[in-house]
Amino acid sequence: MEGKWRHIQQKPQVAIAREQENIKNAKAYTCHRLRDEAVNGTPATVYAVAIDNGDSRDAGQIWVARSSGPLLKEEIDMGVDDKDDKHHVSALFDYANVHAPAGVK
């Protein structure tokens, strides 16, 4: 954050609970398998995702590693129906050789 590493003491269960709450409060939430496809040589399953929370709708695709489960890639269009406030997020996640800087706990 702001160019510095920070330790966040959030357990995975908290993030999962927050996401489950978002899904529960959505007017509509869909996720279905599209196909298998590799991301940088890693076998992945591609899913189509969409969420409608009433005042905006987001839709896109996510690539999840088949063997270990982490998110490898995402292409998300936020504010799909909003002509003035659309955003496209494209992210590629690389977990190889990730280390905190020296001295960071």
Question: What can you tell me about this protein's structure?
Answer:
By secondary structure, the chain is mainly β. The chain has a domain of 65 residues. It is built from 1 helix and 5 strands. A 5-stranded antiparallel β-sheet has the order 1-2-3-4-5, with no helix packed on it. It is globular, with a radius of gyration of 16 Å. The model has no long low-confidence stretch (mean pLDDT 84).
Furnish the topology, listing elements before pairings.
Layout: H1 12-25, E1 28-39, E2 42-52, E3 57-65, E4 71-78, E5 87-92
Antiparallel strand pairs: 1-2, 2-3, 3-4, 4-5
Observed structural traits:
105 residues, mainly beta, globular
Structure in a nutshell:
The chain is 13% helix and 44% strand.
